[in-house]
Amino acid sequence: MNLNFALRIVFILMFVSVYSMAQTANRIRGVILQDGTKARIEQVEVRNQRSGQMVYSDKLGLFVLICKIGDTLQIERIGYQSQKIGVQNFTDVVIHLKLTNQLREVAITSKLASQNFKEISTAYSKEKGIFYGGKPPIGLLLPFGGSPITFFYELLGKDGRRVRRLNQLAKQAAEAEEIDRYFNDLIIQQAVPIDSGQLEAFKLNYTPKLDKLKKWSDYDRANYIKISFEEFEKKNQPK
To answer: What's the pLDDT tens digit per position in 134-185?
Structure first.
């Protein structure tokens, strides 16, 4: 076997290997945050443009989607700028979404994200005449003393829907902020010798639900972090 023939065989095998990897579907996990904050965003639409498969992020901003190398993910959420990301590998991804101009009508300050969303919702409601947060009481439909026009405007109109979404974002941000009180970078680093560059990936996979965090003692929380970190290290050991 001459050298040129051998090199051709090696090249063909490498090409077949890379092609096979590109054609193999696998799960990709991600977390979606509001840009410039630690607030996680729920109900974000994540769509695989090739397959058409779509999922929504959960209350912790997490999602899991089947895809292949080379696929493109379309990330969209009302109130945020849409974003596209290419799938280059199957490692966990952290996506930062920026607010649209609509949500910047009220100045975003260094306040907590939940406070900002509440102020935006209040200002938008005042401007658009939304009095019940987009959830009007059924009593408005009464023939005497009611206001059916207000009821249907808030329940079915676009302004009512936007206020409901803003209030939902405020609630979700408040939950993320409360989780951060019990499970943040400092608390994790005090419990285990984790590298700062690994923190986001660790939190992506091991952030507990808020109801658990509230029940745990400091010992319970530290023990959970240690056990989770051991598992995290094993999964991320070089193969």
So the answer is: 998 988 888 777 788 889 988 999 889 989 988 988 888 888 889 988 999 9
What distances in angstroms separate CA 133 from CA 151, 161, 169, 173, 238, one per listed residue? 11, 9, 13, 17, 51
- Specify the amino acid at residue 174: A
Q: In sequence order, what DSSP letters do the residues of 10-61 get, joined into one string? A: HHHHHHHHHHHHHH--EEEEEEEEETTS--B--S-EEEETTT--EEE--TTS
Answer with the one of 165, 180, 195 that is the final residue of a domain: 180
Assess whether 11 and 87 both reside in one domain.
yes
Q: In this prediction, what percent of the chain has a pLDDT beyond 90?
A: 30
Of 122, 114, 119, residue with least CA distance to 41: 114
Q: Which residues pair with 194 in a beta bridge?
A: none
Look-up: residue for tokens 């509001």? 34
Domain boundary among 65, 98, 131: 98
Exposure string (b/e) for 185-224, b if CB count within 10 Å is 16 or more?
Answer: eeebeebbebeeeeebbbbbebbbebeebeeeeeeebbeb
| pTM score of the predicted model | 0.55
